[in-house]
Amino acid sequence: MQATLQEVLDAAVSRLVAAGSDEPQANAEWLLASVLGVTRTHLLVHGAERITPEQEAAYEKMIVRKEAGEPLSHIVGFQPFCGMDIHVTPDVLTPRPETEELVDLVTARFERRGAYRFMDMCTGSGCIALALADRFPKAAVTAADISEKALLVAQENAKRLRLEDRIQFLQSDVWENVQNTFDLIISNPPYIPSEIVDTLTREVLHEPRLALDGGADGLDVVRPLCSLAADYLNPDGLLALELCKGQAGAVARGLMEIGWNAEVKKDIVGIERFVLAQKI
């Protein structure tokens, strides 16, 4: 007789705990729910149901990958973000809740029906650009990244979400190939100091170093992004950045020294995470 869902789940949790996996209970539940095509709540309510041999084999393959430290998003192939399922591969950073907070902060600054021009620099999976295109139906969005592989993932997401006609994709090393001006420049750039990158969790180290490593102090991309941002912003345009703990205050002060009005915003856990700035 096949094992129950609860029995299979309990065994998987034990294995992930032994493997040192982040959030073993949540990961085991998400993976099993993905195999069964149900919600995590369903697992809690129907734990006495039996799993089929085919389902158990599929789940086993997922658990083996998770034991090896692969991110959940790579295994199931997507990550929820701002109400959308964003396809994720090893070529892009997995969208984080903090980045959703940045999108929410920016959304509050603009009228939903405005015909704006938005730039998402270092777009990765395209999650920010896609969320803005979804929330601002009259906006023209440009999504730029240095990585051709990342842009392919972003374009695939746009097509699947039927937003491809609203977003222009551009391969560019920061401002290298950018020509237009914008009402918003928003970015979640690589910002982790190089010496810290190798100390991150196994899950994070499965993600592209290009999207994580910000150089010696984490600001190798942030500096050129900020130094020329004013040249690419329309009057009263907004620059919005997500940064690492300890960086936001210094970046805001640097912007104010060169003629910006900049403010720092905390994320939901109280970390000074975001910089919102306008050129005076």
Shape: elongated
Q: Assembly type of the shown chains? A: single chain
Through-space gap between termini = 71 Å
Q: Low-confidence spans: pLDDT under 50, at least 5 residues?
A: none
Mean pLDDT: 94
User: CATH superfamily assignment of the largest domain?
Assistant: Vaccinia Virus protein VP39
Indicate how many domains the architecture comprises: 2
Strand content: 15-25%
Major sheet characteristics: 7 strands, mixed
Any idea what the CATH architecture of the largest domain is?
A: 3-Layer(aba) Sandwich
Brief account:
The chain is α/β, with parallel strands linked by helices. It folds into 2 domains: 5-69, Helicase, Ruva Protein, domain 3 (Orthogonal Bundle); 78-279, Rossmann fold, CATH 3.40.50.
Distinctive features:
single chain, 280 residues, alpha/beta, Helicase, Ruva Protein, domain 3, 2 domains, seven-stranded mixed beta sheet, 12 helices, elongated
Description of the structure:
By secondary structure, the protein is α/β, with parallel strands linked by helices. It folds into 2 domains: 5-69, Helicase, Ruva Protein, domain 3; 78-279, Rossmann fold (3-Layer(aba) Sandwich). It has 12 helices and 9 strands. A 7-stranded mixed sheet has the order 5-4-3-6-7-9-8, sandwiched between helices. Strands 1-2 form a two-stranded antiparallel ribbon. Helix 1 (5-18) runs parallel beside helix 4 (53-67) and helix 6 runs parallel beside helix 7. The longest helix has 15 residues, at 53-67.
